[in-house]
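Page 42, continued from yesterday. The earlier attempt failed because a stray header line got pasted into the input along with the sequence. Redoing it now with the clean sequence only.
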Amino acid sequence: MKQIREIMGMAAVIEIIDRDVSPGIFDEVFEYLVSVDKRFSTYKKDSEITLFNEKKIAEKDLSPEMMEIFQLSEKTKKETNGYFDISHNGKIDPSGIVKGWAIHNASVMLQKKGIKNFFVEIAGDIEVGGVNSKGEKWAIGIRNPFNVNENVKVVYLSNKGIATSGNYERGAHIYIPSQNKEADDIASLTIIGPDIFEADRFATAAFAMGRDGINFIETLLGFEGYMIDNNGIATKTSGFEKYTSV
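This time it went through. Structure tokens are written below.
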């Protein structure tokens, strides 16, 4: 069973392979994702993050979910030597961490209901469990940042998360905190990690590091990466190729 709905202004996909699954599980997970968007969207005038930025909500009155994101963001900032920072020009924008967090939480919801074989995606950030409808690992393409209709690699994953940061769809939008400018040194950086939350938060930070980002990923236990620079030259971490065969 597979459903696609629009969440956060992006396509959200949930596919469940397990048999005897209640269709209501889709509604439950999509409703959760909608609630995350309502709380964290910087584009919504009545979202919690907007009201906090406008000083209409005090920090002591923030929801547990918001405080969790603040804590996880601070942890990521420390782990990436400041290359991840949700503070910009006096405002808080947690979008670089919320999407992966929400997808992972959605995946955990499915697992708690006994679902083992699933695919959850929002706009290219993906977490998979188990196997696909053919009983095989999930096949996921890495797009060519210079031709989004073409895949440069296909990876095969089970119980993993994969996130790609790049400027090829939304233009330059990843911020380099220390330089007060947007990152544009590389074209794309894909990270495979133990889950999508971990992959996504490090993908954002590593992209901001430019060409050094792939070296940073190499140092992380349990992560692999694939970088494409502005000249179309690819660099991969030492263990990346283990994911390119079924």
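Notes: The helical segments are 24-40, 48-53, 64-79, 95-112, 196-208, 213-218.
Reminder to self: strip header lines before submitting.
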